[in-house]
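Entry 14. Ran structure prediction on the chain below.
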Amino acid sequence: MSTTRSSTKKEIAAEAWRPLIEFFFKTVKHRSRVLGRYGLTPGDARALGSLEPGEGRPMGALAEEWVCDASNATWMVDRLEERGLAERRTVATDRRVKLVVLTPLGEKTRAAIMKGMYEPPPELLKLDLADLEALRDALAKLPSTL
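Output, structure tokens:
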């Protein structure tokens, strides 16, 4: 005997989201290994990921993106600078504005971390090919920008 279950779109989305977020939490070791190769924390990686090679970002914009106050953003950028991964530059037209720019080492490190983060964790490779294809196809329908 089968029971029909009627669910709202929000309930179904919650059923899909829960295993995604649990999988993300449970595979933290994979991400930690990638960051550990470079002696970086998840916060450092987030900061690096916010900076594009060849482009400067104002400190205020970084604090807004990171949802933190200016002093915390300063601390995060200080950590990148101490490691030689980023530097602050003044804007010629407004010396009060500081842009944060990746150094050549920062660009190289950012690229290596992104490559490592995009490698699937071993647990994902345990799915069979059909399930992986279905997962890939479903996730491809998510918005690419938020």
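The chain is about 55% helix and 10% strand. Will compare against last week's run tomorrow.
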